[in-house]
Amino acid sequence: MTQELFDVVIVGTGPAGIQAAIHAARKQTKVLVLGRIENSSLYHGHIENYAFVPGMTTGSDMLQIGVNQAKNFGASFLEGDLLHLSQGNDRLNLKLEDGSEVQARTLILTMGVAKKKLGLDGEKEFLGKGVSYCVDCDANFFRNAVVCVTGDRSAAVDGALTLEPIASKVYLVADELEVCEDLLTQLTKSSVEHIESKITKINGEKFQGVQSIELANGQKLGIDGLFIEMGSKGALQLATLIGVELDPEHMQYITVNRKQETNIPGVYAAGDITGPPYQMAKAVGEGCVAGMEAATYARAMRKKETGK
Q1: The domain defined by 131-228 carries CATH number 3.10.120.10
Q2: Per-residue model confidence as pLDDT tens digits over 45-59
Q3: How many CA atoms does the CB half-sphere of 51 hold within 13 Å?
Q4: What is the DSSP string of 274-304?
Protein backbone atom coordinates (compact mmCIF):
# COMPACT_ATOMS: atom_id res chain seq x y z
CA MET A 1 0.00 0.00 0.00
CA THR A 2 1.39 3.39 -1.01
CA GLN A 3 1.67 5.81 1.88
CA GLU A 4 1.24 9.53 1.31
CA LEU A 5 4.58 11.31 1.46
CA PHE A 6 5.00 14.73 3.08
CA ASP A 7 8.08 16.92 3.03
CA VAL A 8 7.52 18.04 6.62
CA VAL A 9 5.34 16.46 9.31
CA ILE A 10 4.90 18.48 12.51
CA VAL A 11 3.65 16.82 15.68
CA GLY A 12 1.98 19.33 17.97
CA THR A 13 -0.32 22.31 17.47
CA GLY A 14 0.97 24.74 20.05
CA PRO A 15 2.88 27.95 19.21
CA ALA A 16 6.04 26.10 18.14
CA GLY A 17 4.22 23.67 15.86
CA ILE A 18 2.03 26.28 14.21
CA GLN A 19 4.93 28.69 13.63
CA ALA A 20 6.98 25.82 12.17
CA ALA A 21 4.07 25.02 9.84
CA ILE A 22 3.84 28.63 8.64
CA HIS A 23 7.54 28.87 7.79
CA ALA A 24 7.80 25.39 6.27
CA ALA A 25 4.73 25.87 4.08
CA ARG A 26 6.03 29.24 2.85
CA LYS A 27 9.05 27.42 1.44
CA GLN A 28 6.88 25.47 -1.00
CA THR A 29 6.92 22.19 0.88
CA LYS A 30 4.12 19.72 1.53
CA VAL A 31 3.35 20.10 5.24
CA LEU A 32 1.16 18.05 7.58
CA VAL A 33 0.45 19.09 11.17
CA LEU A 34 -0.84 16.49 13.64
CA GLY A 35 -2.73 17.31 16.83
CA ARG A 36 -5.58 19.26 18.37
CA ILE A 37 -5.12 22.90 19.38
CA GLU A 38 -7.23 22.37 22.50
CA ASN A 39 -4.48 20.08 23.81
CA SER A 40 -1.97 22.93 23.83
CA SER A 41 -1.31 24.43 27.25
CA LEU A 42 -1.78 27.84 25.62
CA TYR A 43 -5.35 27.03 24.57
CA HIS A 44 -6.80 27.57 28.05
CA GLY A 45 -4.55 30.49 28.91
CA HIS A 46 -4.28 34.20 28.22
CA ILE A 47 -1.47 36.29 26.74
CA GLU A 48 -0.65 39.78 27.93
CA ASN A 49 3.16 39.93 27.84
CA TYR A 50 3.81 39.07 24.20
CA ALA A 51 5.52 41.73 22.09
CA PHE A 52 3.39 43.57 19.51
CA VAL A 53 0.09 42.19 20.90
CA PRO A 54 -1.62 44.89 22.98
CA GLY A 55 -3.77 44.10 25.99
CA MET A 56 -4.91 40.60 26.83
CA THR A 57 -5.65 37.93 24.22
CA THR A 58 -6.95 34.41 24.73
CA GLY A 59 -4.67 31.54 23.84
CA SER A 60 -7.43 29.82 21.88
CA ASP A 61 -7.83 32.87 19.63
CA MET A 62 -4.09 33.12 19.05
CA LEU A 63 -3.82 29.44 18.13
CA GLN A 64 -6.78 29.56 15.75
CA ILE A 65 -5.32 32.61 14.00
CA GLY A 66 -2.05 30.72 13.59
CA VAL A 67 -3.80 27.64 12.19
CA ASN A 68 -5.60 29.79 9.63
CA GLN A 69 -2.32 31.44 8.63
CA ALA A 70 -0.61 28.08 8.16
CA LYS A 71 -3.54 26.75 6.12
CA ASN A 72 -3.45 29.85 3.91
CA PHE A 73 0.17 29.00 3.09
CA GLY A 74 -0.81 25.43 2.17
CA ALA A 75 -0.26 23.41 5.35
CA SER A 76 -2.67 20.55 6.08
CA PHE A 77 -3.96 19.79 9.58
CA LEU A 78 -5.15 16.45 10.94
CA GLU A 79 -6.81 16.26 14.35
CA GLY A 80 -5.31 12.96 15.39
CA ASP A 81 -2.48 11.60 17.49
CA LEU A 82 0.76 10.00 16.35
CA LEU A 83 0.91 6.48 17.80
CA HIS A 84 4.06 4.94 16.36
CA LEU A 85 7.21 6.21 14.70
CA SER A 86 9.96 4.35 12.84
CA GLN A 87 12.71 4.93 10.29
CA GLY A 88 13.38 3.29 6.96
CA ASN A 89 14.99 4.08 3.59
CA ASP A 90 15.52 7.80 4.19
CA ARG A 91 11.90 8.10 5.31
CA LEU A 92 10.16 8.42 8.63
CA ASN A 93 7.12 6.15 8.91
CA LEU A 94 4.25 7.41 11.03
CA LYS A 95 1.20 5.45 12.17
CA LEU A 96 -1.70 7.69 13.11
CA GLU A 97 -4.59 7.33 15.53
CA ASP A 98 -7.13 6.57 12.78
CA GLY A 99 -5.05 3.62 11.54
CA SER A 100 -3.63 5.43 8.52
CA GLU A 101 0.08 5.68 7.83
CA VAL A 102 2.11 8.45 6.22
CA GLN A 103 5.75 9.02 5.38
CA ALA A 104 7.84 12.11 5.99
CA ARG A 105 11.12 13.40 4.66
CA THR A 106 11.51 15.45 7.84
CA LEU A 107 9.82 15.54 11.22
CA ILE A 108 9.42 18.35 13.76
CA LEU A 109 8.49 17.42 17.32
CA THR A 110 6.76 20.28 19.15
CA MET A 111 4.71 18.57 21.85
CA GLY A 112 5.12 19.26 25.54
CA VAL A 113 6.96 16.75 27.69
CA ALA A 114 5.03 16.78 30.96
CA LYS A 115 3.31 13.52 31.84
CA LYS A 116 -0.11 13.87 33.42
CA LYS A 117 -0.41 12.13 36.75
CA LEU A 118 -3.37 10.84 38.73
CA GLY A 119 -2.27 12.60 41.91
CA LEU A 120 -3.03 9.59 44.12
CA ASP A 121 -1.22 8.30 47.18
CA GLY A 122 1.18 5.55 46.16
CA GLU A 123 1.63 6.84 42.61
CA LYS A 124 5.07 8.25 43.32
CA GLU A 125 5.97 5.58 45.89
CA PHE A 126 5.35 2.72 43.45
CA LEU A 127 6.89 4.34 40.36
CA GLY A 128 9.11 1.64 38.90
CA LYS A 129 7.51 -0.90 41.25
CA GLY A 130 4.36 -1.49 39.26
CA VAL A 131 3.48 2.07 38.26
CA SER A 132 4.66 3.19 34.83
CA TYR A 133 3.97 6.08 32.46
CA CYS A 134 5.21 4.30 29.33
CA VAL A 135 3.73 1.11 27.87
CA ASP A 136 6.24 1.05 25.02
CA CYS A 137 9.10 1.20 27.52
CA ASP A 138 7.91 -1.23 30.20
CA ALA A 139 5.40 -3.63 28.64
CA ASN A 140 7.80 -6.58 28.53
CA PHE A 141 8.37 -6.38 32.29
CA PHE A 142 4.75 -7.48 32.76
CA ARG A 143 4.69 -10.61 30.61
CA ASN A 144 1.90 -12.95 31.78
CA ALA A 145 0.94 -10.46 34.50
CA VAL A 146 -2.36 -8.74 35.29
CA VAL A 147 -2.18 -5.07 34.35
CA CYS A 148 -4.34 -2.00 34.16
CA VAL A 149 -4.09 1.00 31.85
CA THR A 150 -5.87 4.23 32.73
CA GLY A 151 -6.53 7.20 30.46
CA ASP A 152 -9.26 8.32 28.07
CA ARG A 153 -7.26 9.14 24.94
CA SER A 154 -5.32 7.33 22.24
CA ALA A 155 -2.25 6.61 24.37
CA ALA A 156 -4.30 4.55 26.82
CA VAL A 157 -6.23 2.55 24.23
CA ASP A 158 -3.15 1.90 22.13
CA GLY A 159 -1.25 0.96 25.28
CA ALA A 160 -3.94 -1.53 26.33
CA LEU A 161 -3.92 -3.11 22.86
CA THR A 162 -0.11 -3.31 22.95
CA LEU A 163 -0.25 -5.10 26.30
CA GLU A 164 -2.97 -7.56 25.23
CA PRO A 165 -0.65 -10.23 23.72
CA ILE A 166 1.92 -9.75 26.50
CA ALA A 167 -0.06 -9.69 29.75
CA SER A 168 -2.40 -12.41 30.99
CA LYS A 169 -5.17 -9.88 31.65
CA VAL A 170 -5.56 -6.23 30.68
CA TYR A 171 -8.01 -3.75 32.20
CA LEU A 172 -8.64 -0.30 30.75
CA VAL A 173 -10.13 2.13 33.27
CA ALA A 174 -11.64 5.29 31.79
CA ASP A 175 -14.91 7.12 32.33
CA GLU A 176 -15.37 8.01 28.68
CA LEU A 177 -13.04 7.33 25.78
CA GLU A 178 -12.22 10.16 23.37
CA VAL A 179 -10.62 8.29 20.48
CA CYS A 180 -11.35 7.65 16.82
CA GLU A 181 -13.68 4.89 15.59
CA ASP A 182 -10.80 2.72 14.39
CA LEU A 183 -9.27 2.47 17.87
CA LEU A 184 -12.69 1.86 19.43
CA THR A 185 -13.31 -0.97 16.97
CA GLN A 186 -9.95 -2.54 17.77
CA LEU A 187 -10.70 -2.26 21.48
CA THR A 188 -14.13 -3.85 21.11
CA LYS A 189 -12.66 -6.80 19.22
CA SER A 190 -9.89 -7.32 21.77
CA SER A 191 -9.90 -9.13 25.12
CA VAL A 192 -9.18 -5.89 26.98
CA GLU A 193 -11.81 -5.27 29.66
CA HIS A 194 -12.92 -1.63 29.61
CA ILE A 195 -14.31 -0.44 32.95
CA GLU A 196 -16.08 2.94 32.95
CA SER A 197 -14.82 4.40 36.20
CA LYS A 198 -11.88 6.19 37.82
CA ILE A 199 -9.06 4.95 40.01
CA THR A 200 -9.35 6.29 43.55
CA LYS A 201 -6.60 4.39 45.34
CA ILE A 202 -3.42 2.43 44.63
CA ASN A 203 -2.57 -0.33 47.09
CA GLY A 204 0.68 -2.21 47.53
CA GLU A 205 3.65 -3.14 49.68
CA LYS A 206 6.96 -1.28 49.82
CA PHE A 207 9.06 -4.21 48.61
CA GLN A 208 6.44 -6.06 46.55
CA GLY A 209 5.09 -3.07 44.66
CA VAL A 210 1.55 -2.53 43.37
CA GLN A 211 -0.98 -5.18 44.37
CA SER A 212 -4.40 -3.68 43.69
CA ILE A 213 -6.38 -0.58 42.79
CA GLU A 214 -9.75 0.70 43.99
CA LEU A 215 -12.26 2.33 41.67
CA ALA A 216 -14.92 4.99 42.13
CA ASN A 217 -17.62 2.41 41.31
CA GLY A 218 -16.60 0.32 44.33
CA GLN A 219 -14.62 -2.32 42.48
CA LYS A 220 -11.22 -3.51 43.67
CA LEU A 221 -8.90 -5.02 41.04
CA GLY A 222 -5.92 -7.17 41.87
CA ILE A 223 -3.12 -6.16 39.51
CA ASP A 224 0.64 -6.41 39.09
CA GLY A 225 1.11 -3.24 37.09
CA LEU A 226 -0.57 0.10 36.48
CA PHE A 227 0.15 2.12 33.34
CA ILE A 228 -0.89 5.77 33.52
CA GLU A 229 -1.31 6.92 29.92
CA MET A 230 -3.15 10.22 30.03
CA GLY A 231 -3.57 12.12 26.76
CA SER A 232 -1.71 11.37 23.55
CA LYS A 233 1.58 9.57 23.17
CA GLY A 234 4.28 11.44 25.05
CA ALA A 235 6.94 13.29 23.10
CA LEU A 236 9.85 11.48 24.73
CA GLN A 237 8.14 8.14 24.23
CA LEU A 238 7.95 8.74 20.49
CA ALA A 239 11.36 10.36 20.15
CA THR A 240 13.22 7.52 21.82
CA LEU A 241 11.67 5.02 19.39
CA ILE A 242 14.01 6.34 16.70
CA GLY A 243 17.00 7.08 18.90
CA VAL A 244 16.61 10.81 19.48
CA GLU A 245 18.99 11.90 22.25
CA LEU A 246 17.77 13.47 25.46
CA ASP A 247 19.61 15.97 27.62
CA PRO A 248 22.16 13.98 29.68
CA GLU A 249 21.53 15.85 32.93
CA HIS A 250 17.78 15.46 33.32
CA MET A 251 16.75 13.03 30.53
CA GLN A 252 13.56 15.08 30.24
CA TYR A 253 14.13 17.19 27.15
CA ILE A 254 15.22 16.63 23.55
CA THR A 255 18.72 17.89 22.80
CA VAL A 256 18.94 20.25 19.81
CA ASN A 257 21.48 22.62 18.29
CA ARG A 258 20.91 26.20 17.13
CA LYS A 259 19.20 24.90 13.99
CA GLN A 260 16.79 22.89 16.20
CA GLU A 261 18.31 19.70 14.80
CA THR A 262 18.36 16.54 16.89
CA ASN A 263 21.04 13.86 16.53
CA ILE A 264 18.85 12.13 13.91
CA PRO A 265 19.15 13.68 10.43
CA GLY A 266 15.86 15.19 9.32
CA VAL A 267 14.36 15.24 12.83
CA TYR A 268 13.91 18.58 14.61
CA ALA A 269 12.37 19.71 17.89
CA ALA A 270 11.07 23.05 19.17
CA GLY A 271 9.19 24.56 22.09
CA ASP A 272 8.75 23.16 25.60
CA ILE A 273 10.07 19.78 24.47
CA THR A 274 13.58 21.28 24.26
CA GLY A 275 13.49 22.56 27.84
CA PRO A 276 12.74 25.78 29.75
CA PRO A 277 11.88 28.60 29.78
CA TYR A 278 8.31 27.59 28.95
CA GLN A 279 7.38 30.78 27.16
CA MET A 280 5.41 31.40 24.00
CA ALA A 281 8.15 33.69 22.65
CA LYS A 282 10.75 30.92 22.89
CA ALA A 283 8.40 28.39 21.31
CA VAL A 284 7.57 30.66 18.39
CA GLY A 285 11.24 31.47 17.77
CA GLU A 286 12.31 27.84 17.85
CA GLY A 287 9.35 26.86 15.68
CA CYS A 288 10.38 29.45 13.11
CA VAL A 289 13.93 28.06 12.93
CA ALA A 290 12.78 24.42 12.88
CA GLY A 291 10.25 25.09 10.12
CA MET A 292 12.75 26.81 7.86
CA GLU A 293 15.51 24.27 8.48
CA ALA A 294 13.24 21.25 7.98
CA ALA A 295 11.84 22.70 4.76
CA THR A 296 15.33 23.37 3.40
CA TYR A 297 16.42 19.83 4.28
CA ALA A 298 13.28 18.30 2.73
CA ARG A 299 13.63 20.30 -0.48
CA ALA A 300 17.23 19.14 -0.87
CA MET A 301 16.14 15.52 -0.39
CA ARG A 302 13.30 15.94 -2.86
CA LYS A 303 15.59 17.46 -5.48
CA LYS A 304 18.10 14.63 -5.05
CA GLU A 305 15.32 12.06 -5.48
CA THR A 306 13.28 13.63 -8.27
CA GLY A 307 15.44 16.34 -9.77
CA LYS A 308 12.72 18.90 -8.93
Answers
A1: no
A2: 778 778 888 888 888
A3: 5
A4: G-S---HHHHHHHHHHHHHHHHHHHHHHHHH
